[in-house]
Amino acid sequence: MRVYVNDQAVELFPGMQVKHAVMRAGKMAKIAGGLKAFDAWGHELGLDGALVEGMKIYLRHDSKGIQ
User: Fold this and answer.
1) How far apart are CA 55 and CA 57, in angstroms?
2) What is the CATH number of the domain that holds 6?
3) Average pLDDT, whole number, for the chain?
4) Is residue 66 part of a domain?
5) Which of 4, 21, 31, 35 could bond to 59 as cystine, CB 3.0-4.6 Å?
């Protein structure tokens, strides 16, 4: 399954979670630094959240600006 973290394509196995996508993209330090995960519509995602094919995840301080 392919998802995108800050527009970077990440390949994952089905059943993996948001945290796995962030780790695979090498961005867990940004989460540890206070950024949060949001979907393409600006809704905050939990790190244990489910993924779907083509999902776009953005790491931001809040729902207003991509970091």
Assistant:
1) 7
2) 3.10.20
3) 93
4) no
5) 35
